[in-house]
Design brief:
The complex is a heterodimer of chains A (223) and B (191).
Chain A (H helix, E strand, L loop, with lengths): L1 E3 L2 E4 L10 E4 L8 E4 L13 H11 L7 E5 L5 H14 L2 E5 L3 H6 L6 E3 L2 E5 L7 E5 L8 E5 L4 E5 L2 E2 L2 E2 L9 H11 L6 E4 L8 E3 L1 H14 L2
Parallel strand pairs in A: 4-5, 5-6, 6-7, 11-14
Antiparallel strand pairs in A: 1-2, 2-3, 3-4, 8-9, 9-10, 10-11, 12-13, 14-15
Chain B lengths: L8 H11 L5 H24 L7 H7 L5 H14 L7 H14 L4 H33 L5 E2 L3 E3 L5 H28 L6
Helix pairs in contact in B: 2-4, 4-5, 4-7, 5-6, 6-7
The chains are: A alpha/beta (223), B mainly alpha (191).
């Protein structure tokens, strides 16, 4: 699903748990793409083919999954990162994750070519101005969010959902840090909040007022 | 006529052993080294793991009075072997403390070896840091990725690992000279 010029969203529509994926199309050299959180290869309970559905979705948008040059992971949980292992092994894509989440990623067989720190991320082959990576711990120690200032869009991973937040009770989770992270992200100028899961709505919250209302709801209810 | 008796396995073995030539003094020394050297290494290992205090170390080494020199040298060798890049610096530091404790007469020599080792490590790390900057261009540039948020993880890069091994090997003769020199100087308990 095309959200903006050169940017696609693939909200998960299966029955099992899996994440939403996002693609910056043709932004790398030789027209290669960047995928954020490619999700499960196969979901654990209903055995739904997560990666295959992502590739089919990309194919419908005229994007070849074999041209994924870089996989950005918001965090290490397998419902976000499992397919990254296949992209790396089969398509020689580079995989990027925060160093604090790299050990957990390696437990499921993942290898990180690039460590993500808080700062700017640029793709020289694209018209996209620099993205901003924010270290956003709480759901996991090395969780990151990706902010696209030009479009006022935040890829939030599992920090914040529609009227809800990511869990802080899993290993490495920290509710206090998650609260701080959410308060910090609320300061950004966000017009499109691109969540990691389709919980309660497709996971894409658009419009400044709606995004702020969502932050407000969470602040009032949880923090 | 007396009936021929069947020999036991032990008798056959003893006959064969008695037919063997006597061991030379060198062979005896080699056997003792093989037997008691690991005792010293094990004592050093226990000390390095923190299972033994600095005061207990010489006591343990001196227990083997009949083969004291071999046991001692086993421990010295084990301590000297920690002078390598792959070793945890805390372990190397503890090994130097162990050497200080068992050879107080060679304090300045051990300190000098420690300083020299740290200088080699620093030189190695500087070279690695310099070379690591090259890996960024190797990995990120082909895809046009840049920015302050990205940092290469050299540990998964085959080309980098080969380069690292090559650099490490180039320092090995210096480290080997350092280790061999130190263990030679501390060869006997009287040192």
């Amino acid at each position: 699903m095309k959200l903006f010029d050169g940017f696609y969203a693939y909200p998960w529509q299966g029955n099992d748990n899996n994440c939403n994926s996002y693609v910056f199309a043709g932004v790398l050299k030789e027209g290669k793409h960047v995928v954020v959180d490619p999700g499960h290869l196969i979901t654990p309970y209903y055995r739904e083919p997560g990666m295959e559905r992502l590739l089919n979705g990309m194919d419908r948008d005229g994007l070849d999954g074999r041209d994924i040059g870089l996989v950005l992971l918001t965090h290490s949980h397998p419902d976000h990162s499992e397919s990254a292992i296949v992209f790396r092994n089969e398509y020689h894509s580079l995989v990027a994750i925060h160093e604090a989440d790299a050990p957990a990623f390696s437990h499921i067989g993942g290898k990180a070519d690039i460590f993500l720190d808080e700062g700017s991320l640029e793709f020289s082959g694209s018209r996209i101005a620099a993205l901003q990576i924010y270290h956003a711990p709480g759901h996991t120690p090395g969780h990151v969010t990706i902010y696209w200032p030009e479009r006022h869009a935040l890829i939030a991973g599992d920090c914040i959902f529609y009227r809800s937040t990511g869990r802080a009770d899993l290993p490495g989770g920290d509710a206090r840090l998650l609260g701080m992270t959410i308060r910090r992200l609320a300061e950004l100028d966000i017009e499109h909040l691109l969540c990691g899961h389709a919980y309660g709505n497709p996971g894409i919250i658009s419009g400044r007022e709606e995004v702020q209302a969502n932050f407000g709801y969470i602040r009032d209810l949880l923090y | 006529m007396e009936e021929e008796r069947v020999k036991s396995a032990l008798e056959i073995a003893m006959e064969r052993i008695s037919a063997l030539p006597e061991l030379t003094p060198e062979e005896i020394a080699e056997q003792k080294e093989k037997q008691y050297g690991p005792v010293g290494e094990a004592v050093a290992g226990r000390f390095l793991s923190g299972a033994m205090t600095e005061d207990e170390l010489p006591e343990e080494l001196n227990k083997h009075t009949d083969q004291r020199q071999i046991v001692w040298f086993g421990a010295v060798s084990a301590f000297c072997r920690t002078l390598r890049f792959e070793e945890d610096p805390a372990i190397t530091g503890r090994a130097l403390k162990g050497l200080h404790r068992i050879a107080p007469g060679k304090k300045s020599l051990i300190e000098k070896a420690g300083v020299e080792f740290r200088a080699v490590v620093e030189e190695f790390e500087q070279e690695i840091h310099k070379e690591a900057q090259g890996i960024e261009s190797l990995v990120l540039e082909p895809l046009g990725i840049s920015g302050s948020a990205v940092r290469c993880n050299p540990a998964v890069n085959g080309q980098w690992l080969k380069k690292l091994a090559k650099i490490s090997q180039s320092y090995e003769p210096r480290l080997e000279k350092l280790r061999a020199g130190l263990s030679q100087e501390l060869r006997s308990p009287g040192s």
